[in-house]
Specification:
Blueprint lengths: L1 E8 L16 H13 L6 E2 L8 E10 L8 H8 L4 E9 L11 E9 L11 E2 L6 H10 L23 E9 L2 E8 L6 H13 L5 H10 L14 E7 L1
Parallel strand pairs: 3-9, 5-6
Antiparallel strand pairs: 1-3, 1-4, 2-3, 5-8, 5-9, 7-8
Length: about 240
């Protein structure tokens, strides 16, 4: 039987989602907790990778087990999991369902604040210069038709291609937090953080929209901006 979990996590204490040889990950902790309840070795498959320090407000993972789960499974699982990982739902799904490959879109948010805030210190990045939101949004609109995002990809990655269907990208304020929201069918490693690092160069007036497009079309990571810190990034929704 195959089950689908919906969960969220604070990525501060983890080396990302995927199991790593030298660092604690969300997947490892989740696998171990489910294994305790089912009394068998469980390997979860997540809807995608998140890097070290990145958070997820909505995340999905599936796993297979030979037994029917107890009615109190979610409560028991949350009782074992640490405070920074929470499971909200568990559904029986088709054995053909795949939480990674069946996802049609993913949406990320990046949070920026301009004033010191002890309650957002770990979950948003403080920016020390003004940003021209109108200019950054014009740059976002200019790349909606672009397919190849190699310029924003981590180098030496194992992907076969750098094509992404970018469905939406915008900057807006939610109360006192500046949000960059971006939706695509898939994301490359480090892509959102590199996009933010380059778009903020537009917002600071360091490059114009034409130069921004030149960087994207160059397909060269060396031309793009510095990757912004991971703790401001969230996976916020996944659509199937």
């Amino acid at each position: 039987m195959r089950y689908l979990l919906e969960l969220s996590y604070d990525g501060t204490n983890y080396q990302g989602w995927q199991v790593q040889p030298n660092g604690l990950t969300v997947q490892e902790v989740l696998n171990n907790a489910i294994s305790v309840i089912t009394r068998q070795t469980i390997e979860t498959i997540g809807c995608g990778r998140t890097d070290t320090g990145v958070h997820a407000r909505q995340y999905f993972a599936h796993f297979d087990t030979e037994q029917e789960l107890p009615n109190n499974f979610i409560r028991s699982l949350n009782g074992i999991l640490p405070y920074d990982i929470a499971v909200y739902d568990c559904q029986l799904v088709s054995s053909e369902f795949n939480s990674r490959f069946d996802a049609v879109s993913r949406t990320y948010e990046y949070q920026i604040i301009f004033q010191k805030d002890p309650f957002l210190n770990k979950f948003a990045v403080r920016w020390h210069t003004d940003l021209n939101i109108e200019a950054m949004n014009k740059a976002c609109n200019a790349i909606l038709g672009v397919k190849d995002f190699a310029c924003f990809s981590k180098v030496n990655t194992d992907v076969k291609h750098f094509d992404c269907n970018l469905m939406a990208a915008r900057w807006y304020y939610r109360e006192n937090i500046l949000i960059f929201e971006v939706t695509a069918n898939r994301f490359l490693r480090n892509m959102v953080r590199a996009m933010v690092g380059t778009l903020t160069m537009v917002g600071e007036g360091k490059i114009d929209q034409e130069k921004f497009l030149e960087i994207v079309e160059s397909r060269d990571r060396r031309n793009a901006g510095t990757s912004v810190p991971a703790h401001g990034l969230y996976l916020v929704s996944v659509e199937y």
